[in-house]
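Hi R.,

Here's the input for the 4'-deoxy-4'-aminopyridoxal-5'-phosphate complex you asked about:
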Amino acid sequence: MSERTLLMIPGPIELEPAVTHAMGDRQRGHLDPRFMAAFSRTLKGLRGVFLAPSAQPFVVAGSGTLAMELAVANVVEPGEAALVVNTGYFSDRMALILERYGAQVTHVRAPPGEVPSLDDVKKVLASAPFKVLTVTHVDTSTGVLAPVEALAALAKEHGALCVVDGVCSVGAEALRMEDWGVDVALTASQKALGAPPGLAVVLAGPRALAAWRARKTPVRSLYLDFGEWLPVHEAYEAEKPAYFATPAVQLVSALDVSVAQLLQEGMEPRFARHVRLAKAFRAGMKALELSFLPARDEVMAHALSAVRYPKGVDAGLVKAIAAQGVTVAGGLHPQLKATYFRVGHMGAVSASDVLAVVGAVERGLAQLGATHDRGRAMAAVERALAL
Ligand code: PMP
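And here is the predicted structure with 4'-deoxy-4'-aminopyridoxal-5'-phosphate in place:
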């Protein structure tokens, strides 16, 4: 019997069987009409997922970090100013990428578990012109959710492009790219899009494409240049052959199926399901008297939770939970990683999955002699689910 465990980390996530099956087909050529049709559906579908009817999708082989590079490499030129709204590990990574592409980076930081205040961001934006403002929608290292709508409005008001790292949010958290005036939103296939790792997904809105067209210097990386990818993506969308670099045929085929599943559920019901299940999970943790890394309810993500270890417990809890058949993740924030664990509850996650993970946390704590009242957390989850 194969070992049956439930994967509840913040990506990669459990896949729906139809998504996995899509990769088991015969190898198709990248210009096979069935593949071109799948790529076309995927590109059109992504506009629905990002709620961005006017944006240009790019789907390129690579991980989320490549998606970050794809965004930055095209819209920023050497010497331009970038403002990083910094909520942790992945905002720091965005700054490193911006610097590699020659940008002058200013950070607006918050203590771990918080988001920078809008007033602080406003002050910096008013102090000098910025080409871009970047924000990590959900910082996977801390479980903090940033106010993207308000930040995008501030960026627009001050003439900066708004780039959103949505690797841990797209497909789970409400993100209305076009309504909110987000210029570039990016993600990767392995999180709430519900596909295997390996695809970088970037949607560029009209202002971002105009900024790329108006560049005075060439994009430094050939593989990342919108100029190479745009004709290919336009052709694939029209189901016409084109080539720049071989697409990841199996992964795009899997993404085609998962994007269709997302749209079938509907984005608004999907956002609401993530809110409901995140609240149920947290009700279970609260019943175990556990607290969270995000400082306030308003800054808590719905795609994952970062839960502090109780007194006397360390990362051994992650192993104890694994022994109960559920895989969760340890901490990631460089200074705090020994003090908390992370649970992903995104994608096709169900109420049963939430009960399973909360039960495993409860049993793991009991195994370590750190909890008493067994069943209390499960009851709290049941109550939250009944609301
Ligand atoms: N940004 C965020 C918010 C992430 O969570 C991650 C991955 N955990 C990345 C970027 C980088 O993605 P990848 O690991 O796929 O390169």
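One thing worth noting: The chain has a mean pLDDT of 97.

Cheers,
M.
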